[in-house]
Please model this.
Amino acid sequence: MSKDNLNPTVFAVSATPTLRRFKPLHLQNQTQAQKAFRLNARPSIASSDFTDSDSDKDNEEGISFIDEQEVFQLIRNINDPEHPLTLEQLHVVQQRHITVDHKLSLIHVTFTPTIPHCSMATLIGLCIRVQLLRCLPQRFKVDITVEEGTHQSEKSVNKHKERVAAAMENSHLLEVVNQCLSTAVDKF
Amino acid sequence: MAELVNGYLNDPESTFGQKALSELGARVVDREITLLDLVRLAGGALTAADPFERAKAVSLLAGVLAGLTITSPAPTVTPINAPNIDRVGALDRRTVAVLAQFVRDRLHDTQSVEDLLRAFQALLDSRLVSRNDAIETTRSIFKELNVQNFSQNVRFSAYRVFQSLLSLHLDGMKILGDNFIAGFLVAMDGEKDPRNILFCFSIVKFIIFNFDISGKFEDLFEAIYCYFPITFRPPPNDPYGITSKDLKLQLRNCFAATPLFGKLAWPILIEKLSSTSENAKLDAMETITACAPIYGGESIRKNLDELWEQLLEEILDSKPEVQRLAALQAITAVTYSLSTSSTSVSLLSSTDTLAKFLDNIIKYSLADLLEGTAPKESVRHLLFAAIKATEPSFYYVSTKVVKPILQSLIGAVANESRAAKYAVLRDFLLNSKTFYGDSTSMQDDSLPQNPLLPFKEEFFQNFSSALSSKNEFVVISGLRALAVLSTLAEFMSDHEVEWYFQTLLGIAINEPKAIIDVVIEILIEEANFRVDKVLTYVVPQLLEACTLASASEQAVLNSFECLVVLSDSSHNVVSVVVPALVQILQIETQNLEQVRNVISALEIIFVDRKLPIPQLDVVDVVVIPTLRTLVTRKIDDVWLYTDVLVIESVSRLFSSVMRTLDSRTQELLASVVVNSLFKGDMTDLGISEKPELAVADAKSALRNVSWVLAAVICNLRPEASILNVDIRSMLNYFVQTTIFNGTTEDAESNGYAFRIFEIVASILNKSNAEVVADFLADNNRLFKIIGGQEKTSLRIHSLVVVLLLWVTRALVMKRSSASELAKVTEFIDLLKNEGGDVIASNFYILAADDPSFGRGTLTKSAFAKTALLWQQKQFKHALPLLVAGFNEHDNLSKSVYLLALSHLMKYVAKSVILYEIKNLIPLLLAGLASKNVQLTHTILEVIQTLLKDAPQALAEHIESFVILLLQLTGGDSKSQSVDVRVLALKCLGQIPKTDITFNILFVLKPRVISGLQGPLDDGVKVVRKEAGNARAKWFLLLGKN
Model:
């Protein structure tokens, strides 16, 4: 398979914030200290009592809806089929090109091929779709399109969206897709 | 004698044969017989018609000879083949000459060759072979032997002989000259065995270095180039452990052994660069890097353009990193070799090879830098590789590139392009340091003037204006460039350098995080490079910013951050910062945040520090002022010591400080703390009035400070003692006040009691048997309470359980003998009684690596006395008892036993669990199905480590585990706690990556994938994340790796 784009531009990925050395006390070792306090605070607790504080708190504080960032996290580390680089590094996917609509249960992802005649565009779209099918709840409808004006045959690439099931029957294609997705696990 | 000879000849391999051989050898050594006698005795066999018979006789001779050189090796001090040495052991020159002749005469005898070579090797080892014999024998070997017809072993012997000949008779071999080379090359032609190839390569290299190869270098090159590039996969269990890397390196050394190879090698190397195999390319580039400096610039001239085109392909951003690095190194090496062969810099004309090569690079780079909107990383690396090679290359490239770049920066430039150009300019400045010196070599007149100097104004203007850009990348790359510029001599005035440091300071306090990170990186470098400037322009201002009322909260935090990091990087800084921070602590202020921040900063500075800070009296400078502030300061009418965050932080600070000290200083520190906090005598702190109650009392208002007391006492070294205190009464007092003095149940009382328990346990762990015996005798009542003989309140019972568990741990840890382990048995017996659940849920105290949740009480880092493998011994002791308890009792008590066991399992080495896994599987499953969250959580942690370290243990029952784990993930009902859901999902996600057989897992795949649908829609983000990850991993389970 000859490569379309031998020398793509690689973008600096904003590194996940590194832990800073200094922390104000109320942020420092918080969980540990609290845990120590909690366990120590009630040495006489029957073990069944142990649960309450935990789950109550989590249920109240931790509830959140799926947002753009969460979707981006799922696809940013997918490998480009051509290069040993991720879609994020190549600016193929960006968080600002993702929308989540909870009312309609609709997620829309727009991606940008590295060059207008990229023959891999369909495959990239397929990878993103498969990854989202695997990692998002069923109730969402996922729409994946090529960014307007970035690909020669936009329409034909966008049309492929409904053919996932058929594509997944093709064992060679499935292998390529899995290859690209294998870099996306254990990263978030 | 003849018997021995015949015995060997009949069957050399038999035990009798071997015995006969060593017996004969011994007799020759003892001069009972001579070697020539031996030849005579074996004479019949030596001339027998059957070649195998002859071979046996020769092997007898070779065996005896080899034995001789081992028992009496040649004296190494004498010069090799010194004519005055005629005899070594049983060998003399005459015999050796006769035997050498014998070897020559027999070489045509194919069956005997192996032993003949062995015999000749032995003769060579004796150093008695004359030069003539050496030459003659070598000639015969070349003439008679077709080395490649023989087995690997024989070939190896032959190469060994060649090597010995070269090292012992180099003069002789040089007389043979081209004949030797030709003979050897024929011998190694077609060699395929890796061990032999390695050997041959080293001989080839030796020949190249020692012979005149001007007539033969083409043949030599022919013999080695056919191996390039070497691909080799070592067979499993290779006894010689030869790797592909060894072979590659040896071959590369041969390639790089002589400049004569240059003309021959370049076309081949360049051809390999266009190979389809990435490995071959990599090898070719690495070989170019090694060879270019040897071959010299002249040899590349013809192939230069082709070489450039091939290398350019390999440096592109999209190539794997190893590939890119190798290509860049090759470019540097080629540039280097071209530079050394070219004329002086000033005469460098465009027709020169170096100029031609560099022009390619310059053209390519400028095209991208000046026209592209987003210049590529590869261009920067390419330029860097070219300019770092030599001064001429730097000079040539910089005069052609720097000016256009500077010009292109005038006016509006896209941010990405601007940032990239600054980075390129920085590379130039950085490399100019190597060739023209930095600010420290200012007086060095021998260095030529930096060609970048005329542009200094432009540099400064550009970089300093970058700092006010709105684009993060521009600011960062401007900063980095400025940092380099400021280190160069004559580029910035003193005034500008001062401005530079003040700018760093300003950014460190006020800018967004990404930029601050870069500044901190720069400041760390500066702290090592010119600490005086940092101490003058940065540190005092940072300290001031920490207390500035008008500063924003973020600015203050940034200042602390910067101080902490700088303290880490330099001794000079830390010994200024620590006293200054303590000074700030002593300022009477109503700002609680400030006090907390200072303490936090001090804590962070001391954590992870293994050695004391030089020239800092930590007791006077840190401990006493901090303690005084802690017990006397009131902020908004609240005592500082009631602030839990502060107390915890100070206790962590003190334990970190303690761990850096030797035992004498520890005693000193401990006596200050014990006097003030236990005895209530605060004169050491400069406080004269006595507080109402000693701190150590349960009812004392100051009792929170027990955290600090614990931090100090628990970290004493065993050889350090607590001065002027009666330990026995101190311990008894502690027990009395914590347990019986009617404390209420609240966080503060519990915190107090538990810190005191840790102190008791620590002291018992580090004391002698007498103290322990006294303590146990004095406090017999405690055992009655947990045994149920004495009725008390539930609270007292719980406290006693925790204390005694701590004491048991202290003792078992110190000496895990049967008598100590019996105490664990007692606890297990009590599990069935009322209150057993309290004991079980605190079992972690017995087993945990650090039962004090991060403070390190009773761990090695707190200098606890630790017996070897105590956790294992305890586990092995407790396991059968707990399993029996689990099996004997009804459902309610079952979980109590299981909980106790789960705590032990969590911390014991996984190999021990593996050993017992058959008994444990049902228990693990029961634990997962239990309604007790603490139990489920602990069991999940155990399963997580098992899946990581020993997944095979669970393989047989993996289906049961998967079903239970799926239930725990919540599914539709969100009954489980978040922690349990997340852990269960993590475990599920681990399973596909384990080495459990695909057949077993594949059956489960559909069930897991559909089971994880529910958790994908969980309300909590972390759960969704883990569920998505686990599900993706199960999808990727495809049965081939």
